Amino acid sequence: xxxxxxxxSATADVRRFTPAQRWIHRTTxxxxxxxVVTAACLYIPQLAELVGRRALVVTLxxxxxxxxxxxxxxxxxxxxxxxxxxxxNRFGPHDRTWLRAALHRDKRHxxxxxxxxxxxxxxYATWIAGATLVMLATxxxxxxxxxTPILWRTSATFVHDWLALTIGIVLAGHIGMALADPESRRGxxxxxxxxxxxxxxxxxxxx
Length: 207
Fold this sequence. Notes:
Strand order of the largest sheet: 1-2
Helix content: 55-70%
Radius of gyration: 20 Å
């Protein structure tokens, strides 16, 4: 019996992200990377001495931080991006199952059901979005010192510095997870993933 010509192959590629979605991710990653690098140059004495030009580094840090929300705001014009934001903001029973399996280090794919995004990706997206807004607010207080009382600025500096360290650690984990999954990276690089990978890692997703 022959297969229908229009039947999807088990090994065929499926579209995961549109060009607009990939542009948003890359631009946001570049701005976040610039924020992290310039912050390291400002706070680590050895790097500060090596790079020099502190005023330039401060300016780059301020403007890259201010521009950080811009790709996401521009991306709201994309229907596919808005749809993915909706998916990231919805938690279902399968997400709780995924989290329980992850906490118990159960690596069986059947124990970790996921739609287009798994529970870990949803938590990361929510956390990094909130952290970015807090960093933006505290950074503005530190930048425009004449607009707020000194107590607010002192508190903002404390929150900004420690949250920056936390973001660095979380980003390292995010990058590590991406490096461990070449197919996921291909999806972000080219927009397409194999159907086998989609069925295995995101069994509830129907592309």
